Amino acid sequence: MADAALRLKSLIEQVLGAPLPVRIRAWDGSQAGPPDAPVMVVHHRRALRRLLFKPGELGLARAWVAGELDVEGDLYTALDLLAGLVWERGEDARTLGEALRDPEVRAAVRGLVRLAGPPLPPAPPEEEMRRRRGHLHTRRTDKRAISHHYDVGNDFYEIVLGPSMVYSCAYWPDPDATLETAQRDKLELVCRKLALTPGQRLLDVGCGWGSMAVHAAREHGVSVVGITLSQEQAAYARKRAADEGLTDRIEIRVQDYRDVRDGPYDAISSIGMAEHVGADRYLEYAQNLYGLLAPGGRLLNHQIARRPQRDESAYDVDEFIDAYVFPDGELQPVGTTVALLERAGFEVRDVESIREHYARTLRGWVANLEADWARAVELTSPGRARVWRLYMAASALSFERNRIGVNQVLAVKTPESGASGMPLRARTWN
Questions:
Q1: CA distance between the termini of the chain
Q2: CB-CB contact of 272 with 303 (8 Å)
């Protein structure tokens, strides 16, 4: 009798202490759970072994990446329903160790072990970042982490990001605009906040595929130095500059931000890069950028932020993101970012939250990926494409639910005279 789904549902609910909000279809074809809910498909009992050997998010992620676990129906709805059980149990939630003190929970876990089959832990999918011991955020480890994320293949990123090749939050002053237009409007917003004028020098930290460098040089007449740790990004950005006839105004370097020595710059843009810096290095990052600016120069720091915790020392990096997406990436509250920029010497003049814009951006990227799924798989691997689909969909929900946000912080290297060069009226970016 095919009854794996019913047994699995019952055992999971006993362990979690809550009803399962999605339907389950197991490897034997059986189904159980709410009839109108999205279906969580367990293709192989190996997925259970992953969860038993690595309970929680990382075990689920490994099963998803390996193709042993899937969702039929709306992925966003399924993730939203599961979030309360897996990702949003709160700081006061019962830990697994506490749950296992309950005899009924222990019995349910033993039932899951029997259902999972031979107790051998499956090897992690090949897409998982292999960890090495040592200090985080050295030049070597940062380069390795950036390569893991960005050197996936420029053709793959063209599918996901579209023609703009901008891998950060777009900006919709016109709610009916396309993703491509919204990305152009974001780049223009950054340039206006920095008050760029012809002949100035701009440093673009974490320049990606060169979109900001090309826009600033072409539309505002500035000379740009763009730095990245990704060889593939650098090659792509240099070709774009050449195709635009801007090689006399754009220089792209494979260089760590700690190694830039050719200031002063009139302005610095850092768009979606500071998340890679790490909490222990953030003050150093801010001080380096401060030192590279000319007096009166502006920094536009565009950065994802998390919600603050009651006990900040308890903050843990998201396991799935750390293993498969942004190795060694760290988020901090926007208040911490502002405080560290001020400690470095900056005068912070404006903080603009564009959280809802990132949710919309991510949904656009997911749609791009799903529309050209077969080619994305061909260019990378089935597992890699599944990583990007899950992380972008889950991130879209996180921005929509205010679990994380994104902010543009405008700061000035204000000289001793106090003349900041800023307009008297807020949000007049010229």
A1: 72
A2: yes
DSSP string, 119-153: --PPPPPTTSPPP--S-SS-HHHHHHHHHHHHTT-
Residue 206's contacts (CB-CB under 8 Å, 6 or more residues apart) are 227, 228, 257, 270, 271, 272, 273, 274, 276
Cis peptide before 264 (omega within 30 of 0): yes
230 Cα distance to chain centroid = 17
CA distance 267 to 297: 5
Task: Report the SS3 class of residue 289.
Answer: helix
The 10s digit of each residue's pLDDT in 99-120 is: 556 666 666 677 777 777 776 7
Q: Can you tell me the distance from the alpha carbon of 226 to that of 235, in angstroms, rounded to the nearest whole number?
A: 12
CA angle 283, 212, 420 (to 5 degrees): 55
Element (H, E) at 349: strand 347-353
Residues forming beta bridges with residue 410, ordered by sequence position: 300, 350
Would you state the pLDDT for residue 17?
76
Residue 261's pLDDT band (boundaries 50, 70, 90)?
Answer: very high
Long-range contacts of 360-366 (CB under 8 A, 24+ apart): 360/170, 360/172, 360/182, 361/169, 361/170, 361/179, 361/182, 362/392, 362/393, 362/395, 362/396, 362/399, 363/396, 364/162, 364/170, 364/179, 365/160, 365/161, 365/179, 365/392, 366/392, 366/393, 366/396
Question: In this structure, what DSSP letter does residue 11 have?
Answer: H
Distance in angstroms (rounded) separating the CA atoms of residues 15 and 85: 11
Tell which residue, 413, 178, 416, 150, has the closest CA to residue 301. Answer: 413
pLDDT at 167 over 90: yes
Q: Is the pLDDT of residue 199 over 60?
A: yes
Amino acid at 269: S
**Residue carrying the six token digits 């040592």:** 134
Q: Match 């740790």 to its residue by tokens.
A: 229
Q: Which helix (H) or strand (E) holds 250?
A: strand 250-254
C-alpha span between 140 and 142 (Å, rounded): 6
